[in-house]
Amino acid sequence: MSTIQPVRRKSPWPAWARRGLMENIATAIIAIGFLMLFQPIALSLYTYSFITMLTGTVMFIIVSKFPE
Predict the structure, then answer these.
(1) Are the C-beta atoms of 46 and 36 separated by less than 8 Å?
(2) Band (2; pLDDT cuts 50, 70, 90)
(3) Which of 33, 34, 13 is CA-nearest to residue 22?
(4) DSSP string of 5-65?
(5) The dihedral of CA 1, 8, 16, 24: what is its sign?
(6) Which residues contact 27 (CB under 8 A, 6 or more apart)?
(7) Residue-level pLDDT at 14
(8) Torsion angle of alpha carbons 34, 24, 67, 10, nearest 10°?
(9) pTM for the whole thing?
(10) Contact criterion met (CB below 8 Å) for 33 and 52
């Protein structure tokens, strides 16, 4: 009795551009923007919090189309 193993093709995408790692980075950028939004110390961090969260969200949408 032998089991047949599925054949895995090598993806042309580099390892750093795979979905798992890039989704984690995008989620971290969103979290950083969220922390920037709710911190009471620096007005400049508050000012750039929306653009940071928007960048992370757009990155997450784009990266979710990448192969695993």
Answers:
(1) yes
(2) low
(3) 13
(4) PPP-PPPSS-GGGSHHHHHHHHHHHHHHHHHHHT-SS-HHHHHHHHHHHHHHHHHHHHHTT
(5) negative
(6) 56, 60
(7) 77
(8) 160
(9) 0.78
(10) yes
d(CA 6, CA 26): 31
> What is the total count of domains within the chain?
1
Instruction: Give the residue from 39, 33, 25 showing the smallest Cα distance to 54.
Output: 33
Task: For residue 68, tell me if it sits in a domain.
Answer: no
Rounded Cα–Cα distance for residues 49 and 31 (Å): 10
Q: Give the span between the Cα atoms of 8 and 18, in whole angstroms.
A: 16
Give the range of the structural domain holding residue 47, as residue numbers without chain letter.
16-63
